[in-house]
Every structure is written in structure tokens, then in C-alpha cells.
Amino acid sequence: MQYYWIEKMFRVEQRQIKTQASLLLNDALSLEVAYSRLERSSALDREGISVENEGWGGNFENKTVVVHVVYPQPTKFVKKCETEEEWYEYTKSVYCEYHISGINLIRLDSAYKVALGRYAITLPFVLVKRDSSDMVLEQMPADIDYNRYNLSLDTIPLGIDGKDFLVARFDGSYYGMFRQMRNTVFISLGIVLLLAAILIYVVHTIFYQKKITRLRNDMVNSIIHDLRGPVTYIRKALPRINVGESQQKYIDAMRRKNERMELMVEKLLITSVGNKAISLRPEPVSLCEYIGDIVDQYNGDNEGLGIRFLCENTSLMATIDRLHFGNAVMNLIDNAMKYSNEKPYICVRCYEETNYICVSVKDHGIGIPQEYMRYLFEKNFRVPEQRSLPRYGFGLGLNYVKIVAKAHGGDVEVRSEYKQGSEFILMIPVIKKKGNA
């Protein structure tokens, strides 16, 4: 398509050049024979030619043309015309003046080049003076094969005998036309590239908007899904309280559900607002007891779940923010449940390793493909999954876990094997007491 467009553009430009160059050549030739006429007197004197009886149609009745020719050799030309039209044709200035004193092809070439330059025509050209048998009499420039220039102007007859002709040919090749039109071509290509860039930007924007819309819909669905659980539980628990059953376990469960909703709102605030800093209220906590309570809540709220909890050192103490650290651990447990097939098998472990206190959450679920591992903790990232197995989520949980770990001066690591399971390790540094080595 682009080739066809450039080809057509070259053809149009060639037609315009041919029209303009033909007019300029006629003007330049007329000017040249006028200069030649000024040089005629010296030429006639040099040849000793008398012009006493010279004329062309001075006696209009006999329609006779009489000219003393200087070029190509001195001679006298007499022509008896049969009609006024024929007489007029022979007495045209260019024809006759050429025979009187000829033309200077070098001077004509220079003048023509200047005239073309005024109209921004820069194509290489050659001027050829030839006879009726197509023999080259003179050429400018002399070292160019004019046959390889394929853009030819109309042949101009020279002289009253109709034997000499002036031919102008231009380099109409793709290379020559590209040199002539390179600015136009570059501008056109620039416009095409600009339009292509605009089109790509528009398409990218459309797809980006579709992605944002899909993310927004997923987030709304996720929020509805997460809020529906506590609300449904509270709705089912309230009638049982009213009939006088044991109320404490339902009140405790509703309190935990309400706390979960508060934690979810806090997580959304921390991760959704980019410039909101996390504010910690650290306090010493018996880590095994604290994490154990969280595991017990999950086992109590999910019949048959059976999360396994291991603590290698029951006296392990950690300085943490209960709200955010607990929320981070629960987020890891939620993910382990969400991405486990059928009945989840989850193990939560607390231990100390190389100056770090670690909380590990390990599952035997679907695992994470290696190509997505480096994106796990980015905001709004979710590992692509099959539509037949939808799993709700914000794409904010792991980003929040990372923020909490960094705020505690620690980090979070992940180990995963696709279709075998994953292990997330939340690490915070051990704060040594003063005086300890």
C-alpha cells in the first residue's frame, strides 16, 4: 500500500515537473537566442558576410524568407513560401535567430539550471542538440549518457530548415525522484507515523480502559463477596440469640467477623491510596499464642478445615503491631485456602532463624508458575486463572503483606512449585535486649 502511494506520488510530481520545466526551457531558449543576436554583428564581420539584401518577408506579397546563416557554417538561406502560414512559421524568432547566430549550449545550461532552481526542481538533467537523424551535435553535460534519463520534455525544433532539435531529459528514476521529493516524502512519512502512533495510542487507551473496567468490576465483586460472609453469619446468628441459646459463642463469632471487616477496610486504605503511610503501634507479643489464636479462629469458623499449627519455641516473643501483623498473617491463610483444591491442607509454623522471627504459611494447592513469581507483590496483580475456577480477590493482599513486613523492618519470601503448593514466609528482625551479646 505504501509502495503504491509513493509510486502514484512520483507520477504526479513527474507530470508537474514536465509541464513546468517545458515552459522554463522555452523561456531560457528565447533568452539565449536574444543573447546570440547581440553577438551576431561580430560574427558576420568576422566571416565577411554582407547583410545588405537580408530579410524575411520584407516584401510581404512574395512571402520570401532570406537569411544569411552563420551557424553551423556561413550560408545564405532563401525560402519561397506558398502561404502566409508557412511564411509565418519560418519567420518565428527562435527558428530564425538560431540560424543567424546559433546558441551557446553552456550558457543555456547555466540559465536553465538557475530557472529550475527558482521552482525547486533539483532533478539532474541533460541538454542535447541533435539533427534529424538523431545524431548528437552537442551535449551539456558532455559526460552523461542522456539515454538513461527517462523523463523527456517535448522536442524543440531549431532553425528555419527544420534539421536541428533541442532535447531536454531529466532523471526520472526512483532515486532521482526521491532526491527531488525527499522533503515531501519525509514529511508524508512523518505524518503517517504520527497517525499510526495516535492510532496505537487510541487502541492502547481503549484496551487500558477495558482493563480498568474489568479490574473495577472484579474489585466490586470481591468486596461484595468478602462482605457477604460476615453479614450472612450475623444474620443467621441473630435469631439463635433471640431464642435463648448459648449466646457467647455467637457474640464472639460476630465480633471476629466484624474485626475481619475492619481489617479488610484497613487493608484497602493502605494499598489503594498510594501516598497513605502505614502507622504501627508495636507491642511485645507472645507470637505462638497470638498466631495460635488466629489459627483457632479459622478452625472454629470453618468446620473440617483443620489448619495445622506448629511452634518450635513457645516462649518466642516479637514486637509487632497486632492489627496489621495479624491482618497480614490472615491474608496469607486466606490465600492458602482460596488457592487449594478441594479440602485445603495448610500448615502454619512459627520459628526463629538467623536473627529473624518467621511465620510460615504453607499449602499444597495449585502453586504459582515461575513466570509470575516476580510480580506477586505488585499492587493489583493477580495470577491469571481459568474462568471456570473464579477466585475473588483485590490483587492487593500480597502487596499489603509486603508493606506490613517492610514497616516492621522485615520482608516476605515465597517458595512455590506449580501444581504442588506454595509457602509464604513473613519475616521480622529479632530485637535483642540491651546487654545481650
Low-pLDDT parts are 55-59, 386-390
Q: Provide the helix percentage.
A: 40-55%
Mean pLDDT over the full residue set: 76
Number of strands: 15
Oligomer: single chain
Approximately what portion of the residues adopt beta-strand conformation?
Answer: 15-25%
The structure class reads alpha+beta
The number of helical runs is 10
Largest sheet: 5 strands, antiparallel
Overall 3D shape: rod-shaped
Radius of gyration, in Å, reads 49 Å
Commentary on this structure:
It is a single chain. The protein is of the alpha+beta class and 437 residues long. Helices cover 49% and strands 19% of the residues. The chain is built from ten helices and 15 strands. It has helices at residues 2-38, 40-47, 84-90, 93-101, 105-118, 174-242, 248-272, 287-301, 322-338, 397-407, and strands at residues 55-56, 64-69, 75-80, 125-131, 136-140, 151-152, 156-158, 164-170, 283-286, 308-311, 317-320, 346-353, 356-363, 411-417, 421-429. The strands form four sheets. Strands 4, 5, 6, 7 and 8 form a five-stranded antiparallel sheet that branches. A hairpin with a 7-residue loop joins strand 1 and strand 2 (64-69). Helix 1 (2-38) packs across helix 4 and helix 9 runs antiparallel to helix 10 (397-407). The model is unreliable at 55-59 and 386-390 (pLDDT under 50).
